[in-house]
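Quick one: structure for this chain?
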Amino acid sequence: MLRKSLSVFAVAPLLFVLASTSVSALEIGWAKVELTPPFSTPLAGYGKRFGKASTGVHDPLFARALIISGNGEKIAVVSADLLLIHRELREEVAKRVAPLQLSSLLLCATHTHSGVGGYWDNFIAETLGMGWYERRILDFLVERLVAAIRQANDKLIRAKMGRTVEVFHDLSINRRHRGKAVASEIAVIRFDSLDGKPQAAIVNFAAHPTILGPDNRLVSADYPGVVSRVLEKHVSVALFAPGAAADLTPRRVIRSRDKFQSVDAYGNKVGALAVRMLDGTRTSERASLKSRTLDVQLPQATTAGAMGDSLAFFVDPMFRRFVPHTTRLQAVALNSDVLTAWPGEVASDFQQALNKVDRKSANGGSRWIFSTANDHIGYIQTEQEYALGGYETSLSLFGPELGSRLLKHLVGMIRELSEK
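Got it. Here's what it folds into:
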């Protein structure tokens, strides 16, 4: 296995700061709340299921919440074992946790394709893979997510923070370009109590959680759930945040008639690497937290990627009645690193682009993509990949310029954070 290890605390003190950054005492709180409904729901993830209900539960779904407080910021990061986060879901959660006076709420889905469906009142989403909408499903998920955030907020303690990043070459493959080598980055952010005991972690990794496939009818968190469970033998809660995985799929999965064995094998492999990284991460009480949230205008929606320009000319006027005109972007700076929250499924090329931009102000820090976060606007591709067509292009609903426009906004947000 080829890998490159980058430990923030083994480089230099400047890794603790962005330009002109002050530091303060860090506090964290965490919680884990079950997200599996006590009633049957559609399984989200595949249109081929035609909205069919789950037939049982293989492994439970969870909402994992982490409150990070310092520098006048109080940031809630939530990872939910769901296919996606849509705007109404986030807004309902944000409204109910408003009394907590959060400066930022980052709500992301692990993107399991065997989780709860039926929680988005949108005909296109229902048809494409969410299953038919039921208000009680949305209400249940909102209540559980709010409970996780409130519980995390109720037990804030003084803490220390650190992170480690490693690059691997045998974990993911590009499903659009089978011969294309993929360097997969795992990032582990570790949070300790002041006595040095690890309490919480965030793991950022990119590979589509589709090992189980459309024939599965059992509720499951897929491999991200296994990764979290492996880490939770060492910490109280481990949040899985999906990276830029729109075109990436797990590599070297053990093939078995029982696909849950494949899920366990891959999840344990990624989880074991994350545990080793967690153990090697040093933490510090010094913390600089900053965040930025921005609502941006979307390009005009189009079905051209799915139908071609001629048919899109007739279909688009009706289609645009079902899609938004704006979306939400977010950037959260933890010391010299920045988490960028993207509202959909992000092509891996954007992680590479983000790694290359703004190196001077990065001060040795990393820029990570948290996908399927805060909203869902479909696939987010580069102009070159959009032009190649295919499945991802058919679900890229805002044309070829969407990805570059969002990247430009996020780079600007990162630079604003570095100048604060």
